[in-house]
Amino acid sequence: MSDRTAKGTASAGVTPLVEGLFAMSVEAGPLLDTIPLPLAVISPERKVLFINEAAQVLTGFSLEEARGLHCMYVMRSSLCPDKCPLAKVEDTGAAVCVDANIVSKERRKIPVRATFAPVLAPDGSIAGYVEALEDIRILQELEIKQGWSYGFGDMIGHSHEMERIFQMVPGIAQTDSSVLVTGETGTGKDLLAEAIHNASARAKGPFVKVNCGALPETLLESELFGHSKGAFTGATESKPGRFRMAHNGTLFLTEIGDLPLSLQVKLLTFLDDKVIHPLGSTKGVNVDVRIVAATHRDLRQMVREGKFREDLLYRLNVVRFHMPPLRERGEDINLFLNHFVHVFSEEFGKKVTGFSQDALYFLENYAFPGNVRELRNVVEYCVNVCGQETIEVEHLPRYLMEQPAGVPAGTGYGVQPAPEAPPAGMMPPPGMPAPVSSAASGAVNWADMERKMILDALLQAKGRKNRAAEILGWARSTLWRKMKHYEIESS
After folding, report:
1. DSSP alpha helices (H): ranges in 25-173?
2. Cα–Cα distance between 344 and 110 in angstroms, integer?
3. 423 part of a folded domain
4. Tens digits of residue pLDDT in 120-146
């Protein structure tokens, strides 16, 4: 590989060439970009000279950002601090293959199989190194999921709605139809998008995620569609953009409701023609990319308000998945609690095995407005602070006990009271009798009172559980769980 500039290869504006291999010299960069395996070319001083597009997708660093940095600041491997494989390569002159974790620019820990090989000069000295990374997340996930009874991809659940989604995903994954995923924050929209990609014929290709709400409009256009050299002040090099980086794979556009109207037009054009037009270029580029979009917003309402194009909504909404909130997933709460206790106990090297009955009852009746993400964080906190095998109520985050004034339980903030000791300030829904303390009545406790409230609501609703849940101010799933807890038969 030669350099047709007078500067070193770590400088900006370099166009290294491959000579003597083909009939004429070819540029090394585009050649390495055609290889789907993430590759990095590293100098003897361990500075990054080049990373191909696959490596840019994996690490999150662009070529401009990575070039010239020490490789440990780009690869960010768990081996970098004191077990650098390049030291062994330097000593032995032979290639080394190791399993490790890298941390991407988005702070995602990614398990990889890394191969380090020396690049030898004609005199046998080391001219540099090549590092090849293989993403082994799918292999590790398959090993872990062998013990799972319910789930698809990284998602687990056995509620009716989730089982319906799990049944649909394999079929939808085999098509190239655009997919729109809706649902509240924390319901697992990202996991569903990745599961669709991994179950598709594009699984060997890149899965590229772009948060449409994270960048200003001017930067987002360049990030998505790329730009040509000199397209604007500071554009010293051409940039491929995320569409081209996702070629033969999937582009996941999260927070699609935040996409500016001007870029909605460009996205619509791509969906129609499969051609993108980089900034500053008059030539279109064909890319083979499947679009999966996600949002927590009501896009139909945004269409009515003129904030989202109706034609784009129709093009994205070819297949729609709606991720239900956790409060409507019934027994999935228990499944998640047990799953995350196991995960974090393993990760933190603890012997926590589960929850006490009081803690479990409390969590089962908490509404989790932050959905699965909040539940995961709660369990992580509990495992962190718990010094025994069983998580008790005192190990739960304190904020769970604090219910905003005037917010009825089961509406997204509160927790239903424990059977024998309802929290202070907890009142029954409007229209229902106030609880009578056991001290005042001498006979009736909260569990008896709550059971009576449910029976009264069912009587008032003439047995219709939907209406009874409305009267109680609870979600239907909450009423269902409590009826089961109090062994109330539905008529």
Report:
1. 28-33, 53-59, 63-66, 72-75, 85-92, 137-145, 160-173
2. 17
3. no
4. 888 888 899 999 998 887 666 665 555
Q: Is the pTM of this model over 0.90?
A: no
For the stretch 288-316, pLDDT in tens is: 999 999 999 999 999 999 999 999 999 99
Cα(52)–Cα(142) distance, integer angstroms: 28
For the segment 237-257, the average pLDDT, to the nearest whole number, is 90
Domain span at 457: 448-486
- 9 — pLDDT class (breaks 50, 70, 90): very low
25 lies in a domain?
A: yes
Query: For residue 477, what pLDDT is reported?
Result: 74
d(CA 82, CA 86): 11
Are residue 177 and residue 291 in the same domain, yes or no?
Answer: yes
Shared domain for 173 and 310, answered yes or no, is: yes
Q: Residue 444: what are its φ and ψ, rounded to 5°?
A: -95, 125
160 in a domain, yes or no? yes
- Is there a single domain that holds both residue 304 and residue 169? yes
Cβ count within 10 A of residue 159: 19
Helix runs in 274-354, H state only: 299-304, 310-316, 332-348
At residue 367, the pLDDT reads: 86
Residue at 436: amino acid letter: V
Separation between Cα atoms, residue 375 and residue 364, nearest integer Å: 10
The first and second tokens of residue 381, run together, are 């906190």
Structural domain total, the chain: 4
Token pair in block for residue 2: 């030669």
* Token pair 């090849």 in the structure block, residue: 132
- Of residues 447 and 391, the one with the higher pLDDT is 391
CA 48 to chain centroid, in Å, comes to 28
